[in-house]
């Protein structure tokens, strides 16, 4: 075997070691850090940091100081937050000839859907017509149930966050609700004992009607109010009168403005927009900072005082005015009273469904019942539920300021606003013809003005779409139409 040598010499490539980075030693680092250049740099960066931090702090302080401050929320009781619902005749409301407190307990779910804050029950105490000796304000009439049934009802209502107010008008079956004037001292003693008794049972308040028949109503009301409030400030006393005279109403409330009073103040027939504006603003001015309530009477139905085409308008009015709206059972469906000519109107039977019609041979209109209206989103009942829900949620409707607007003879319009919350504009047409709303904001506070456009939240008449943007300058209303409009707060 022969080995050949290459003519080219082979060379070996040598690898140079890569230098490793070891950084500065401690001594070198201290030497560099102490140099004048680095000392000046560190001080400059530290100064910039603190100047920037102080600048941001100063900016935040300026923003907080210049930002509009939120108004302190007023103290509110439970009856300030929504409507009250009167059940004057228990059996008529239940639609049963033998209805009792146990049956009413089964209707708590329905009351909950109405979003009412409480209901006024009765009277249900034992009362022999015009016989004071056989009247016991502390005993439930056995035809309605027992004290245990009532306590069970209180428990069920509390679970639904619904308050119970008991009507203690003494002689509710007789001619004079307060018996004879010579018996008033005895009645007053019985009343005070009954108030204390039922407060211990757990009721949330009381109602007494026809207080104008008392010999010294303001004095009695003040005394009963003190007893009611002795347990808790969250207990309510409601007084009722059939008077529509504002001065007489104010005299009844003179010693104590912290109670609610239902009256016939707004029961005038054929109210125009201007007249309603006058009555409402006069009432609110007279009450000042005191809380008020709204109803058409101390016990009657809306349909007894308001024409059918204005029922929706009145619901919108009561739910958007400052104060507590008070309704009777059946107002939410437009229930009408019934009675023979020349005789007192009987409490109408609540129309729950087809079975509520007493005369089965008569034509049944399902749209008049709770069942029928619950299935119709455009019904009066659906409107009631929606308004009641909004009334309890929106701050401007709960405790907002009220400003009436000049708008025309058949129109009544006003604004509800609270601090920086959304504003609500209500425009009501009481007339039989369509109207162009010419809104003038002369009553608004300085710096506040009406916007050019508003959003439609609700119309009491079908045909308008929620959320539609409307020009206020060309705002036309149909006959008997009410509009609930909204617009944002602008700083």
From TrEMBL:
Residues 90-377 form the Glycosyl hydrolase family 13 catalytic domain. Residues 1-20 are annotated as: Disordered. InterPro entries: GH (IPR017853), GH13_cat_dom (IPR006047), Glyco_hydro_b (IPR013780), SLC3A2 (IPR042280), SLC3A2_N (IPR031984). Residues 1-12 have a biased composition (Low complexity). GO terms for biological process: amino acid transport; carbohydrate metabolic process. This is Solute carrier family 3 (Activators of dibasic and neutral amino acid transport), member 2. It comes from Bos taurus. The lineage of its organism: Eukaryota, Metazoa, Chordata, Craniata, Vertebrata. The gene is SLC3A2.
